[in-house]
Amino acid sequence: MKILLVKLSSLGDVVHALPVVQDIRAALPDAQIDWVVEKSFASVLALNPALARVIPCEIRRWRKSPLSAATRREWRDFREQLQQQAYDAVIDLQGLSKSALVAWLARLAPGGQRYALANQTEGSGYEAPTRWVADVAIRIKPHTAAVQRSRELAARALGYPLQPAPDFGLKRLVAQQGRLQDAPEKIAIRIAFVHGTSRADKEWPLAHWVELGRRFNEAGYQIALPHGNAKEGATSQAIADALNAHAPASATVWPLLALDALTRELAQCAGVIGVDSGVSHIAVALDLPHVQLYNFDTAWRTGPVPAGRQASVFAQPAPGVDAVWQAWLACSA
After folding, report:
1. Where along the chain do the CATH 3.40.50.2000 domains lie?
2. CA–CA gap between residue 249 and residue 264 (Å, rounded)
3. pLDDT tens, 205-237?
4. What is the mean pLDDT of residues 182-194?
């Protein structure tokens, strides 16, 4: 059976859909599973060996100049790549017009069908074309977490029972040697602070990061500070400067890393503290000890399922340092 998954963006949403691949592989071990995704997130999917093909697109960029010669050429190339394979099932996991367009363009095998969401779930985007394009539209309970929504949609489309716990397919990276294999004693005590987010109202105060970092330093941990752009890099540097002034070499700013390299580096950390962001959700997927910070009461939908090693902390206007530290102690016990 040949199956195409359509989940284009954003990073957190793509990570939330990763367990679908492992679910299908467990239920249909001979299935070929392909995935269409925005090019900027393709490298994370490439880390999962259960995927046969990752088909990149750049719809976000193409929208900015839809009539340019470059866009027309790249769109034609994407469409040709998409239609190389005929699929028995095309599953739109996103529920937006752009994902519906991709699902509609995909080529079906004889008897093949397109599946999509029949309704919006709480806190998620939804646009009617996804239902119009589908041969089978599947209704999901409105109050459904993001990970469960994708898993349930695929399971009902393909007719298999869900296993209780999601498997993101990335835990194997935790046990593998990576770029820092020459310094295992440092790897074992690194804690990554994932402070970057595309929304300012999801950020945690700089002073909180510094105070929390000092507690980790006193407990024998070194702080690793990833970032995705110049603004986040400046914040990483500010946190590192404050921590290193108090205890030299207690914090390190990572260079700007591609997503696959960043994922491998996170996999070698002892744990992660992060705001609600795509990179923080990668930490969840890696099954690392992790505390996720929420300024909004939305952790039920996008946060980790409380399971001992991972927790979310919510408060307004922002969680306090003590609450986050206590959550960490519980996760790392």
Report:
1. 2-169, 172-331
2. 22
3. 999 999 999 999 999 999 999 999 999 999 999
4. 69
Q: Record the tokens describing residue 187, joined without a space.
A: 């790897």
Q: Which CATH number does 172-331 carry?
A: 3.40.50.2000
Q: How do residues 158-180 score in pLDDT, each as one tens digit?
A: 999 998 889 999 987 876 644 44
Domain 2-169 has CATH 3.40.50.2000: yes
3-state secondary structure the chain: CEEEEECCCCHHHHHHHCHHHHHHHHHCCCCEEEEEEEHHHHHHHCCCCCCCEEEEECHHHHCCCCCCHHHHHHHHHHHHHHCCCEEEEEEECCCCHHHHHHHHHCEEEEEEEEEEECCCCCCCCCCCHHHHHCCEEECCCCCCCHHHHHHHHHHHHHCCCCCCCCCCCCHHHHHCCCCCCCCHHHHCCEEEEECCCCCHHHCCCHHHHHHHHHHHHHCCCEEEECCCCHHHHHHHHHHHHHHHHHCCCCEEECCCCCHHHHHHHHHCCCEEEEECCHHHHHHHHCCCCEEEEECCCCHHHHCCCCCCCEEEEECCCCCCHHHHHHHHHHHCC
